[in-house]
TrEMBL record:
Belongs to the membrane fusion protein (MFP) (TC 8.A.1) family. Residues 302-377 form the YknX-like beta-barrel domain. This is Efflux RND transporter periplasmic adaptor subunit. Residues 114-290 form the CzcB-like barrel-sandwich hybrid domain. GO terms for molecular function: efflux transmembrane transporter activity. The chain crosses the membrane at residues 59-75. GO terms for cellular component: efflux pump complex. It comes from the Bacteria. InterPro entries: Beta-barrel_YknX, BSH_CzcB-like, RND_pump_MFP. Keywords: Membrane, Transmembrane, Transmembrane helix.
């Protein structure tokens, strides 16, 4: 039997002996005077009372740890305090699944919403919906008093018609005037040409020649003073501007008249009604909308993510959504929108936040718009990664990270980069993949002062502690 088997047998034998002694104390089954004594203090201590419930494996493990501790103390004392190495708690390195999640929260809302408002100063004469009603796009929600607007439309229509008639009359008169001016100009050209010949022959005086030239110039200026469209005289542009202005005013009044029938612009559910019949549409209390509509068939979660975490967020990432209203249940969602710009966080903070939208899967949900929900966004994951407790990371002088492994009773520091960051565990990636192997003993924590080659005593963590 080798030393390891012998030690194992000794431990098991010692554990059995301890087991019998403790049971004897607890049950009063000792020999001689022990049967007559009152229960010892051990019987009144919860630890010893619970010893009976321990499995044999746990008792052996406990005895092993106790013997190891006694051996460690005695060895140090027996060697006059010689250094057997610092005791360190270790775990076995293994590949395992790991997930990194980002926890956020925000209000639940419909995917599409609209606040129905009106800038028309008119009384509400009818409200055709109430909160909770489902409405369709184009449906009439409310009706306003249209008496004044009908009169204003009639006035605007009359002004437009007059502007059109005035232009038509001006076009007609300008066409006739232009036609006569052209004829007069042509006659002046003929007269001036004849007079030029006569003047050259000495048939008319210089004064007569100048008079002829002036008449030609006057006729030309008269023709040039007309607005010509398609070869005909027409009204000047101001008449067209008057028509356009009148048309705009008429169109505006007709649109206002049409808007006295307030219609829904989306399919959805009426979630708020803030007005009542008799109120002016543009004077709702506290400047609230007349009513609000949301598409509750598809809900979304509006989240603001810190600028320090937004780099981890991508479109299509999955999220698990919880809320008080759901109890122990959860919903699933997906990141569908990331704002291209950030905004102030508020509260005097200099931090910026970026709005994102998580669409909640499915329509059959207990979630309702207006409440606050929480989401865990799965930002990264791996089914098989070397992962260690966060406490196992050691800061190196160059600002990097390392882990300490125990080999043959000595420390070896392995520089690593961190990858997926779970709640408790973190992925470690060495510069050379061959540097890490499953089964390595990794110092689980408190390794800040460890150095390469340092002698240590490895104390394995229990399965419960390391899992």
């Amino acid at each position: 039997m080798d030393d390891q088997q012998k030690n194992g047998t000794d431990i098991e034998t010692e554990a059995a002996a301890i087991d019998r002694q403790i049971q004897a104390i607890m049950e009063g089954q000792g020999t001689g005077d022990e049967k007559k004594r009152r229960p010892s203090a051990a019987g009144r201590i919860p630890f010893f009372r619970s010893w009976k419930t321990y499995s044999r494996r746990k008792k052996i493990a406990a005895a092993a740890v106790l013997l190891l501790f006694i051996f460690f103390i005695l060895s140090r004392c027996g060697k006059g305090g010689s250094d057997m190495g610092t005791a360190v708690s270790v775990i076995q390195l293994k590949k395992q699944p790991i997930q990194e999640k980002l926890a956020v929260s925000g209000p639940v809302s419909g995917t599409d919403s609209v606040d129905v408002v009106s800038n028309i100063h008119a009384e509400i004469t009818a409200l055709n919906v109430k909160e909770g009603d489902k409405v369709s796009k184009g449906q009439i929600l409310a009706v306003l008093d249209s008496t004044d607007l009908e009169r204003e439309v009639a006035i605007a229509k009359n002004a437009y018609d007059q502007a059109v008639v005035q232009k038509q009359e001006k076009d007609k008169s300008e066409a006739l005037g232009y036609e006569k001016a052209v004829q007069d100009y042509q006659k002046a050209q003929t007269d001036h040409a004849r007079n030029s010949q006569l003047f050259a022959a000495g048939g008319i005086t210089q004064a007569a020649m100048e008079e002829s030239a002036n008449a030609l110039n006057d006729a030309r200026r008269l023709v040039e003073g007309y607005t010509v469209v398609d070869g005909k005289g027409a009204a000047d542009p101001s008449y067209e501007l008057q028509i356009n202005s009148a048309a705009y005013e008429l169109e505006k009044k007709e649109e206002e008249l049409e808007n006295t029938q307030i219609k829904s612009t989306i399919d959805g559910t009426v979630v708020r009604v803030n007005s009542k019949v008799g109120q002016f549409a543009d004077k709702v209390e506290d400047d609230k909308p007349i009513l609000s509509i949301e598409n509750l068939e598809q809900l979304e979660l509006e989240i603001k993510v810190s600028e320090y975490s937004i780099g981890k967020i991508q479109l299509g990432q999955k999220a698990v959504i919880s809320a008080d209203i759901l109890g122990e249940e959860t919903e699933e969602g997906e990141v569908v929108k990331i704002s291209p710009t950030g905004e102030e966080k508020g509260g005097g903070s200099t931090e910026r936040v970026i709005p994102i939208t998580i669409r909640i899967d499915g329509q059959d949900t207990k979630l309702i718009a207006g409440i606050t929900a929480r989401a865990e966004i799965l930002v990264d994951s791996s089914d098989s990664a070397f992962a260690v407790p966060v406490t196992a990371l050691i800061n190196t002088p160059d600002g990097g990270d390392a882990i300490a492994v125990v080999e043959n009773g000595k420390i070896r520091l392995i520089p690593v980069k961190t990858g997926i960051d779970g709640d408790v565990m973190v992925e470690v990636i060495p510069a050379d993949s061959s540097q890490l192997e499953e089964g390595m003993q990794v110092v689980a924590g408190g390794g800040a002062g460890l150095t390469d080659g340092q002698a240590v005593t490895a104390l394995p963590q229990s399965q419960e502690a390391s899992s």
